Amino acid sequence: MLLDKLSVKLQQAMIRNSIADLKKIIMEKITASDKKQNFQTDFLPLQGTDYVEFYVGNAKQAAHYYMSAFGFQALAYAGPETGLKDKASYAVRQNKLTLVLTTPIRPNNEIADHIYKHGDGVKALALRVDDATSAWEETTKRGAKSYLQPQRTKDEEGEVVISGIHTYGDTVHLFIERENYHGPFLPGYRDWSNPHYKPADTGLLYVDHCVGNVGWNQMNPWVNFYQDVMGFRNILTFDDKDISTEYSALMSKVMSNGNGFVKFPINEPAEGKKKSQVEEYLEFYNGEGVQHVAMATGDIVHTVTDLRNRGVEFLRVPTTYYDDLLDRVGHIDEDLEPLKELGVLVDRDNEGYLLQIFTKPVEDRPTLFFEIIQRKGAKSFGKGNFKALFEAIEREQGERGNL
Ligand code: FE2
Fold first, then answer.
1. Ligand 1 mean position to 211 CA, how many Å?
2. What is the bridge-based pairing of β-strands 204-213 and 263-270?
3. What is the Cα–Cα distance from 279 to 270, expressed in whole angstroms?
4. How confident is the model at residue 15 (pLDDT cuts 50, 70, 90)?
5. How much distance in Å is there from the Cα of 255 to the middle of ligand 1?
6. What secondary structure letter does DSSP report for 336?
7. Which domains does the chain have, with CATH numbers?
8. Strand ranges (E), 271-366
9. If pLDDT is split at 50, 70 and 90, which confidence band does 382 have?
10. Alpha-carbon distance 348 to 327, whole Å?
């Protein structure tokens, strides 16, 4: 009897222990798989866009344009006076948006060649990271082509580490590690502000997304690049049925990094009766490159009114767009009249709505332009506006004789 009782207790203890062991094993497995998952999505943690660098024919004047027309403030300068032999760069800033305008001051170098081939355009989409060495190692080991090996630079304000990889066309991503830097912009730059010229800010806040135009059948290879090499996810896909007019079409996939701070839609042309806007871009940019940079605002009516009054030109959709707008998107907080007057577009998704407008190209080649966007819950990109928008773009293309 006693033996029986002991044996039952022993069995119960064994069951309890094995359940506890089993729990332990399961927990270990879950943690390991979590770690694996985190490792898979976080091998390239990004804190957002650090700056966008343009190669331009005349950086001094381009910097003035972004200050006078868009409300950026002078931030920092690097050039012959700071020891650079063959280029000059001006950094301008508005809230979390930093633009760098760089120009060659001699021929026969990478910057001069870039401008000869592409005209003014975006060279670098610089991303803020905690560890630029690891960002470079993780991406190059997954197949990225190195543009710049991790490079540590210092001045009396501290140090930064910068590395870089190539992406589509001649565009690059730089990884900027600047936690230990307290100067105005980067080592090598000096403070550049003019107490007599401080144009008011226009309410632009941060980079919402940057769109790349790539060649025929190149969208998926670049989607795979962002997926495999940079750990991004494809969060939205638009096919030629979503984005087509009577004449032309394009396809687009939106890639986002893990925390959603960095979003890169990738466009490729699709077959249509006439030349699409992506084809026009590829022809005049002479290759793949950044099509538009979307800048966020908290008050689009204020921002666009201000930009328009400073000479920024926007694409216009026909006013009939507004006739049934509220039937399409439901209630919005804004008055319709100012939106109609400015030409601001509205679209709704499951999470809310967004307001957006597009500038005309900001250089003589029909290449780079800007989007101004205000998000009110919506995380999408204005699919409902594509048709009206692309018809507006095609009217402009027609005027240029490029349709
Ligand atoms: Fe956009």
1. 6
2. parallel
3. 9
4. low
5. 12
6. H
7. 46-191 (3.10.180.10), 204-400 (3.10.180.10)
8. 289-297, 345-349, 352-358
9. confident
10. 11
CB 353 within 8 A of CB 347: yes
Q: How many CB atoms are closer than 10 A to CB 28? A: 10
Residues 151-176: pLDDT tens digits? Answer: 999 999 999 999 999 999 999 999 99
Burial class (CB in 10 A: 0-12, 13-18, 19+), 190: middle
* Burial (0-12, 13-18, 19+ Cβ within 10 Å), 136: buried
Q: Confirm if 255 and 381 have CB atoms less than 8 A apart.
A: no
**143: number of Cβ within 10 Å:** 11
Judge whether 175 and 164 are in contact, CB under 8 Å: yes
| Distance from Cα 373 to the centre of ligand 1, integer Å | 8
Residue 153's alpha-carbon distances to 43, 63, 164, 206, 291, in angstroms, are: 24, 25, 14, 26, 31
| Collapsed DSSP state (helix, strand, coil) of residue 395 | helix
Give the sign of the dihedral formed by CA 390, CA 396, CA 400, CA 403: positive
Amino acid sitting at position 163: S
Helix (H, G, I), strand (E, B) or coil at 218: coil
**CA–centroid distance, residue 164 to ligand 1 (Å):** 24
Record the pTM.
0.88
Helix pair 386-399, 277-285: axis angle to 10 deg: 50
Type of residue numbered 143: G
Query: Which residue from 370, 289, 252, 365 is spatially nearest to 125, judged by alpha carbons?
Result: 289
Cβ neighbors of 282 (< 8 A, separation 6 or more) are: 213, 215, 269, 288
| CA dihedral (312, 317, 320, 325) positive or negative | negative
State phi, psi for 142 to the nearest 5 degrees. -95, 5
Amino acid at 394: E
pLDDT tens-digit series, residues 183-231: 999 999 999 988 899 999 999 999 999 999 999 999 999 999 999 999 9
* Structure tokens, 38: 């985190």
Q: In what order do the strands lie in the sheet with 263-270?
A: 233-238, 249-256, 263-270, 204-213, 289-297, 369-376, 352-358, 345-349
Question: How remote is the CA of residue 348 from the centroid of ligand 1, in Å?
Answer: 15
Rounded Cα distance, 51 and 42, in Å: 21
- Span from the CA of 264 to the centroid of ligand 1 (angstroms): 9
